[in-house]
Each structure stands twice: as structure tokens, then as C-alpha cells.
Amino acid sequence: MTAELAIDVRGLTKRFGKRTAVDHVDIRMPRGQVWGFLGPNGSGKTTTIRMLCGLLRADEGEGTCLGYDIRRDSRKIKRQVGYMTQKFSFWDDLTIRENLEFVARLYEIRKAGEVVDRTLETLGLTSRQTQLAGTLSGGWKQRLALAACTLHDPAMLLLDEPTAGVDPQARRDFWDQIHRLASEGLTVLVSTHYMDEAERCDEIVYIAYGKLMTQGPVQSIIDQSGLHTYVAEGPGVRALADRLRGRDGAEHVAYFGSALHVSGSDAAKLKALIEAERGDGVRWQSERPSLEDVFIHLMGRAEDKS
Amino acid sequence: MISPLRRILAILTKEFIQMRRDRMTFGMMVMVPIVQLALFGFAINADPRHLPTVLYLEDESPVVRSIVAGMAQSSYFDIQAQVHDQAQAEALLQAGEAAFVVHIPAGFTRDLLRGEKPSLLIEADASDPSAASGAVAQIGQVVSQALTHDLTRGWGTLLPEAAPVNVVVHRRYNPEGITQYNIVPGLLGVILTMTMIMMTSMAMTRESERGTLENLLAMPARPWEVMVGKIIPYVGVGLIQTVIILGAAAWVFGVPFIGSPVLLFGCVALFIVASLAVGFTFSTMARTQMQAMQMTFFFFLPSMLLSGFMFPFRGMPDWAQAIGSVFPLTHFLRAVRGIMLKGADFVAVWHNIWPLLLFTAVATLIALKRYRVTLD
């Protein structure tokens, strides 16, 4: 129980038929931190999370979650982990309160009524407690799900894309809750596609095609990527994008808002290319690559490998 | 003209692809007609023969032996045993082990020779009127043919009398041959099978279809806890159905209720649990509610056709009877008819209860074994 690491798994592998969904992934995550779990769709994030909380049996690999063996002690893990599924998975035909009470009883929480009351209060759901869960909007469903998976006072939260399809305000509120929970000592592993959310995490694990690509704090991931980025702005940008794509030195060309990011790992080649494209009402600026630049880069590399 | 066709073709293709992907449905579409054909074509026979018959002979002369031999030859009667008192005969009928008791009273041969038209008593289990009717209709002819043979040879002088023997048939348990007496208690079993299996088989698949199963599995509930928790409400539903059906049986159809209500409710409870266990097993196999529905029907059809509900059980060939014996409905029907119509006690219905217990145990084991604690 006193394990320093909340998650400590080695060589975690899962196959579905011939497809390897998760391929020898190692994760060592200390307690009390908030980690972001990133990667393209179908990269194995959900599968990994499911293996961690015992919903799927790993084909290979071993390790512990909260000090419990992921293969043998999945019941103990379930008691101490709050898992929020990607798709809303509470009962549409129960009210918010009924859902929470059901969860509370399954975890054998004493004074379930009081705990539910308190949870409703903290998450701002009290006024809606008699509403059927199925009639809630996306943001409120997320709140309910978070309320339900924190009800039993877990030591760790596994959140699978909790903010997908939720409006910016609700997303911000949701993250405030995550930070509040983390400040109380909870360990949180949250998968996401949003870069701003990733940047709020202590560390990031990036996985693509089942393989772990990189891991570490945001800054060091950017530093280690060896990527150089130029940002172009101005009216001529649109014409530029097609011209630069596929050219030697420009590995990735992508829009960020109205700006064009051109990245490459060979600084000299990239510079030469950019010098040749100056003019035409385009302002060029050398910038530190953003996390997204790095991820697009990593995704490209993973594709090459697979 | 062409473009609607194209769109129809597009939809058609999509449907075929989906049909092919859904192996379970595809399998059902092929299996249901095959099973139905096999059952209706080979198994079901509305004129059952080889009915188990018990002899109670107080007179054993050559004439009596010819009558017995004639009955055996007629293929309607399968002489299985001989009893020596009325109580024994009664018990066998009540338990449903004998369909007929042939009683030849003392002095039968003597009276026959004197031309006094002695009585030959046949007690028939008429709780299912159609099961007994064929044999009952034949019995007079069978007896007189057997006698004709003997009498022409040995005692030719007796021949002129048209019917030397008075064949008395007692249609026991349902003397007027009222079909409802048989059907209504049977319906109890059929309705319970249908709703119990369907409801539970959908209960689990609904969770997986709506995505709530993942949530349920992520929480600390053991398989048997989930199973018991899901099944118990339906036991209540089943008992309500039972009360409704029995009420209708008594007040609408006037079906007699001779036996013990407590024993009947005991059997009903056991049968409900057996059906729920089947339903739960299906719900661990089916991926969608649609498939659960199909599996329910796949189980329901043969159990209705082979249990003796629609067609006399003893009219089926041995292999079909063997399959029929697997279904809980078969044993439940016998128990219910035994208790309601014949006033059977626990001892008499025990040989219908233990197969139900066995079935329930096996189905529960399979369900627990198949219940996945993971999403694999």
C-alpha cells in the first residue's frame, strides 16, 4: 500500500485478434500527480486505462496499480480507483441522485445519503438531483460522471477523454475540479486530445499505434523533440502551405489559427527553405515548437515505424 | 426510375453486409427453420402410441392373456408393469408414469364364458385429452378383436354376441376431456418461460448495449451479486404472472385445483429461477438485445413444442422425448398438471422436481462461468 508509485507497469501488451492495441508500454507514475495521456485516436489509450483498472486482461506485461498487482488484485484496485469512461456510462433512466446512490451502495459507503448530499453540493448538482441523467447536456453528464467516480474517495482517478464534446466553460470548470482533487492528494491520469489540457499536467505520456513515444514534462518533451519551427503570418500564408508541403526540410506544415507552422528536425535545411520563401506579404518568425507541433511530429514518426 | 433503384440497391447491400456481420442472427435464420422442420416433421405426432400401460389383473386366464397380447400388438399400449392393488395403480397414474391402468376384475373369464358381459375397466390419464383419445378410441376394437380370435377357435358358440365384454373407460382427472384443463395450467409454464427468459436475457445485454456495463464492471460487484440482484425483481414479476394465470384458471376457465397450493408455488418458484438462469446465460452470450431476443425464441420454440404443451409428449419418438426432457418446461408442466388436476403430493411430483433442480444448477453454473468480469 505504501508504494511510491501509483502506476508501475512494464511491458503492458494487449492484442485483439491480430491487431496489437497496446505494445509493451511501460508507465511509472508517482502518486499525487496529474498526468496527461495523449495520442491519436485508436492509439491504445483507452485499452491501457482499461488494463490498469482491471477491465481488460493484459496479454503480456506486469506491474502494479496503487501497489496492487494488475492481474491478481483487480478487485482491490477497483475499490480505490475512480474510472470515468469515455462514453457516458451512467444509467439514463435514473436521476442524478439515484445514480449516485447506486454507486455509493455498490462501494458500501456508510451514510451514503450524506455522502451523496455532499458530493452533489461540491459539484454544484444539488438543484438538478431529481433530473434524469439521460436528459442532461454533455457538460452536466461530465459533472455527474466525475461526481460518481469520486464518490468512494478513490486514491486515483483514471479519466478517459473526460472533456470530449464539452463546451469551453464546462471544460474549464471540469479542470478546476481536477486540480482541486489533485491538491487533496489524488493521483490523476487523464487522456485528452486538447493541448491546453495537456499543458496543465505535471507530465505527459504520449502513445501512438500502441507504442509509447515519449514521456515527461511538457517543456522537456518539447526540448527533447529536436524540432525547429517557423511561424508564418500574413495574407500570403494560404498559398504558402501547399507549396511547402513535402519539400525537403519541411517535415510538417500545419495551421494554428491563421498562422502556419512549418517544422523540421534539420535546422539548417529548414532555415534554407524558409529563406527562399520570404516576401509575398508573409511575416516569418522562428519560434519554439508548440506541444502540438511535437505531437504531429511524433505521430508522423510512429507512422513511419509501423 | 434508375436513381431510386440505385439507392434501394445501396440500402440492400448495406443490409446484407450487416446481416453477414451479425453471425448470431444469421445462424438463427438458418437454424430456426431447420429446427422447426425437424420438430414438426419428425417429432410431433398428434396420435401418440406406445403409451405406458400398467396391468392390474385379478384374473389371469388364457382369454385375459389374449386381451393383453392384443393390446400390446395394437401399438397404442406399451405394457410396462403389473400391479397388485388399486393404490399402486393409482400412484402410478398420479405421478404420470402410467397413462393407462387395465383392470381385469376377478371372475372375468367365468362371467365371459357365461355370456354375462363382464366389465373390463380402463383407467386413462385424461389430463391431456388429446394424448389419451387415440388409444381410448381404439380400445373397444382391440379387445373384441382379441376375443374374436380366441372365441372363434375355442368357444365358437359365444361368437354371435356382438360385444362379449363391456369395456369401461374411466377418463381420470379430466372426465369431460375439457382442453382448457390441460392448456391453462400449461400456459402458466409457457408464459413464465417466455417472459422470464426474455426479460433477464435483455437485462444484461441492455447494460452492454448502453455502455453502462463498463461502468458496472469498473465497480466492485461480484458476478453472482450482479446476477442475484438482477434476477430477484423478475422472480417477483413471475409470481405476479402466476397469480394472474391461476386466478384466470379458477374463475374464467373453471379449471379444478385439487392439490396443494403451497407445493404448486414451490414448483413455480423453482421453475422461475430455472428460467431466469437460462435468461442470464443468454445475456452473457448475446451482444445485443436483438440477439438476446433471438436466443430466447430459439430456446422457447422447442421447449413449447417438445414439452408436451402443444402436442402429446408420448407421441414423439424417443430422440425427441430425450431432447424434450432437457427443457425445464417439460417437467414443470407435468408437475403443475399433476398438482392441479390430479392432486399429486410432493412424493408424486418429486421425479419432476429433481430434473428442474439439476437444470437450474447447471444453467447457473454456466451463467456464472460465462459472466465476464472484464470487457475482453
UniProtKB/TrEMBL annotation, chain A:
Q: Does the keyword Nucleotide-binding apply?
A: yes
Single GO MF descriptor: ATP binding
- Keywords, in A-Z order: ATP-binding, Nucleotide-binding
What Pfam families does its record include? Answer: ABC_tran
Q: Which CDD domains does the record match to this protein?
A: ABC_DR_subfamily_A
The cross-references to SMART domains, in alphabetical order and at most eight, read: AAA
* Matches recorded under InterPro entries: AAA+_ATPase (IPR003593), ABC_transporter-like_ATP-bd (IPR003439), ABC_transporter-like_CS (IPR017871), P-loop_NTPase (IPR027417)
**Every ABC transporter domain range:** 7-234
**PROSITE patterns from the UniProt entry:** ABC_TRANSPORTER_1, ABC_TRANSPORTER_2
Q: Under which name does UniProt file this protein?
A: ABC transporter ATP-binding protein
TrEMBL record, chain B:
Chain ranges of the ABC transmembrane type-2 domain = 145-374
Provide this UniProt record's keywords sorted from A to Z.
Answer: Cell membrane, Membrane, Transmembrane, Transmembrane helix, Transport
In the bilayer, the protein is annotated as: Multi-pass membrane protein
UniProt-annotated location(s):
Cell membrane
Does the UniProt entry include the keyword Transport?
Answer: yes
Where does the source fall among the domains of life?
Answer: Bacteria
Q: Check the record and name the Pfam families matching this protein.
A: ABC2_membrane_3
**Keyword Cell membrane applies:** yes
Q: Which residues cross the membrane?
A: 24-44, 183-204, 231-252, 258-283, 295-313, 348-368
Q: Which family does it belong to?
A: Belongs to the ABC-2 integral membrane protein family.
Its name, as the record gives it, is ABC transporter permease
What species is given as this protein's source? Asticcacaulis aquaticus
Biological classification of the source: Bacteria, Pseudomonadati, Pseudomonadota, Alphaproteobacteria, Caulobacterales
